[in-house]
Amino acid sequence: MVVQSASASAALDDGVVLDVRGLKTYFYTRQGLLKAVDDVSFAVRKGETLAIVGESGCGKSITALSLIRLVPTPPGRIVGGAVSLAGTDLLRLDEKAMRGVRGNDISMIFQEPMTSLNPVMTIGRQIGEALILHQGLTRAAALARAVEMLQLVRIPEPEQRARDYPHQLSGGMRQRAMIAMALACNPKVLIADEPTTALDVTIQAQILDLIVDLQRQLGTAVILITHDLGVVAETAQRVIVMYAGRKVEEAPASELFARPLHPYTSGLMASIPRLDLIRGHVEAGRLQEIPGMVPALTDLPTGCAFAPRCQFAVDRCHADYPPYEEKRPGRWAACWRSDELYGAAHA
Amino acid sequence: MPEAAAKPVLEVSGLKKHFPVRKGLLRRTVGHVFAVDGVSFSIGEGETLGLVGESGCGKTTVGRAVLRLVEPTDGSIRLDGADITGLRKAELRPHRRKMQIIFQDPFSSLNPRMSAGDIVAEPLGVHRVARGKALRDEVAALFERVGLRRAQMDAYPHQFSGGQRQRIGIARALALNPKLIIGDEPVSALDVSIQAQVINLLMDLQRERRLSYLFISHNLAVVEHISHRIAVMYLGRIVEHTDKKTLFTNPLHPYTEALLSAVPVPDPAIKRKKLVVQGDVPSPVRPPPGCHFHTRCPYAVDRCRIDSPALREVVPGHHVACHLR
């Protein structure tokens, strides 16, 4: 086992609200053992947006679900690690105590607001529910607060909308209502799992603006799960890149985009068509492909999971999994050839 | 860059598709969804026209109406010089060979009970192009061309990944050697690393076979990459139509401007002034009067609320439907 004692966030400076250490979530299936999340560590600070990016099956959503202990069990199980929220390890809480945390200290918004809203309950009552449960508000007070929350997420005519059912709202409005619900109890951490993926691009821009604005107002730490590097670049301060259940790179957003230190990150960036290039009159040539496909988690190669698709892979990459280490201050990557390919740390 | 030259492969003019909205016990028609409301364009040989817009703008319906998978309410469709608008099923069949479609979801568009080889062979059988060993060889050649192995012909769709399934869909579309392929969000369901593989494959095939594409997508960056010309749709109408370079460097319609500025740029070093339009796309059952976009347009004046702007050629080759240009 490779030593992964600390992560980029190891410098436990103040402001860390959620600290995740060595998280392991495995699925026990008929096809065998799936290490969906394999030794993942990170920390999020107050008011910060941390993005977790990767392609389908990389473990980003299961990581998010593990944090609030909503991994479908069986077949899934959190088998190791710690998730500390203000000194309490959430993985050690009993279910009753955990219910007091979900929606109160940590809340989550999902990709498809229609499936995560209750279709037979008005929007106002759904937002108020958490306030009644967690903060002991009366129904009338909860409803009044729900209307305030709808106003906060800039839904026009909030009093009327609070009386509406989810199907009466558009997709963008539903996602706003979800955000209102998630923020109603003023949580320390908001997990947003592909919050704009189901939305049209003009609506996506509105929702991203809203999340960033509210975060500034309320100081919430946001964990943004996404596959869209554009969304990451516009919202996140720090980025974690996952591949086949593990972290392969972590860096401040500006540095990651300027110079990735892992061939997978670099390949991802080169494979997306970019609008800003044509504006700079760069003629679009062939897109750079990452050959092959993401390996099945039941059948991971022995060495680096990315090696079979990596154009720089050498024998060592196929034999041993590279250590996840700090390549330069604040920049972590798991690659044997990172220094050689992207330059070693200066100073 | 190929222009829509002398003889376009596809010519669509004044295309309309209105779906009736039925209600009540007697299923009386109480209104219409104006899904496509007067759309015209043409595509030349070896050319890609990108059709972009947000959900509900009618772009998918345009694709289906061109293939006559939905019956157009009005307008005409000429494929390779022949008017196919009024043709009956049997008359349409020889023309169908010339146009094929690739769908978004490679999971639901392949028959799970047929082997991949049979799926690709089916159109060749239906049109009696080949049989027996010749058919199998033809299918094998198609498999290899789209980057699948011959040995995979006997596997079933569930044994393939999303990207590979999309390759099967492409092989099936290529089987009859069509002139026109309509791609309805063909890469939207794929992971980014796989998306690049499929886009490159489509562009290579176009070069080899002089294929024409109608490429329908909501993803502007993908459309920009693959298209020669682009038409932007909003609520059933084309609001802007020009070559891609002009569209991306000098968009004239406020909606195009808003769309472009809403696309997140994967580079934190680029700080842009964004035009974030407010509100939602109105319902196509009751589209707003005048310019459909006036309810969200930051520049709208009184005239926009009354008069519907026609699509005009404001600069040679650059068509815009806006009173202010």
UniProtKB/TrEMBL annotation, chain A:
> What is one cellular component GO term in this UniProt entry?
plasma membrane
Q: Where in the cell is it found?
A: Cell inner membrane
PROSITE patterns from the UniProt entry: ABC_TRANSPORTER_1 (PS00211), ABC_TRANSPORTER_2 (PS50893)
| Mode of membrane association | Peripheral membrane protein
Q: Which residues form the ABC transporter domain?
A: 20-269
Q: Name one GO molecular function term.
A: ATP binding
Respond yes or no to whether keyword S-adenosyl-L-methionine is given for this record.
Answer: no
Q: Which GO terms describe its biological process?
A: peptide transport; transmembrane transport
Q: Which domain of life is it from?
A: Bacteria
Q: Which SUPFAM superfamilies match?
A: P-loop containing nucleoside triphosphate hydrolases (SSF52540)
Task: Could you list this entry's UniProt keywords, alphabetically sorted.
Answer: ATP-binding, Cell membrane, Membrane, Nucleotide-binding, Transport
Give the family from UniProt: Belongs to the ABC transporter superfamily.
Recorded hits in PANTHER family, A to Z, give:
DIPEPTIDE TRANSPORT ATP-BINDING PROTEIN DPPD, OLIGOPEPTIDE TRANSPORT ATP-BINDING PROTEIN APPD
Name this protein carries in UniProt:
ABC transporter ATP-binding protein
Specify the taxonomic lineage: Bacteria, Pseudomonadati, Pseudomonadota, Alphaproteobacteria, Hyphomicrobiales
UniProtKB/TrEMBL annotation, chain B:
Subcellular localization, per the record?
A: Cell inner membrane
Q: Which residues form the ABC transporter domain?
A: 21-260
According to Swiss-Prot or TrEMBL, what is its membrane topology? Peripheral membrane protein
Q: What is its main location?
A: membrane
User: May I have one GO cellular component term?
Assistant: plasma membrane
Sorted alphabetically, which InterPro entries does this protein's record hold?
A: AAA+_ATPase (IPR003593), ABC_transp_ATP-bind (IPR050319), ABC_transporter-like_ATP-bd (IPR003439), ABC_transporter-like_CS (IPR017871), Oligopep_ABC_C (IPR013563), P-loop_NTPase (IPR027417)
Biological process (GO), any one: transmembrane transport
Kindly indicate whether the keyword ATP-binding belongs to this entry: yes
Asked whether the keyword Nucleotide-binding is assigned, the reply is: yes
| Membrane-spanning intervals of the chain | none
One example GO MF annotation:
ATP hydrolysis activity
Write the record's keywords in alphabetical order, separated by commas: ATP-binding, Nucleotide-binding, Transport
Protein family: Belongs to the ABC transporter superfamily.
By what name is this protein known? Answer: Dipeptide ABC transporter ATP-binding protein
Q: What is the lineage of its organism?
A: Bacteria, Pseudomonadati, Pseudomonadota, Alphaproteobacteria, Hyphomicrobiales
